[in-house]
Amino acid sequence: MLRKQQNITIIFLLLFFLLLVLDHFHSKNHQGLQIKIQEHDEHEEGSSPCGM
User: Within a domain: residue 15?
Assistant: First the structure.
């Protein structure tokens, strides 16, 4: 009984840390995109090569 509970605990912790790492990278990528969008919005009119 104790062995089974120990296995479940280990699996739960592994999944928890996996989701934590995935969330960290997702948040980091999302923050990088927000910075790029913000920098693009700060261009003066006519100075951007795309004309925006």
Answer: yes
Dihedral of the CA atoms 40, 43, 50, 30 (nearest 10)? 0
43 close to 52: Cβ distance less than 8 angstroms: yes
What average pLDDT does range 7-26 have in this prediction?
A: 95
Q: Flag whether pLDDT at 38 surpasses 80.
A: no
**What integer pLDDT is reported at residue 32 of this predicted model?**
72
> Is the Cβ–Cβ distance between 52 and 40 less than 8 Å?
yes
18 assigned to some structural domain: yes
Compute the distance between CA of residue 17 and CA of residue 10 in angstroms, rounded to an integer.
11
Domain that holds residue 18: 1-31
Give the per-residue pLDDT at 16.
Answer: 98
Residue 52 lies in a domain: no
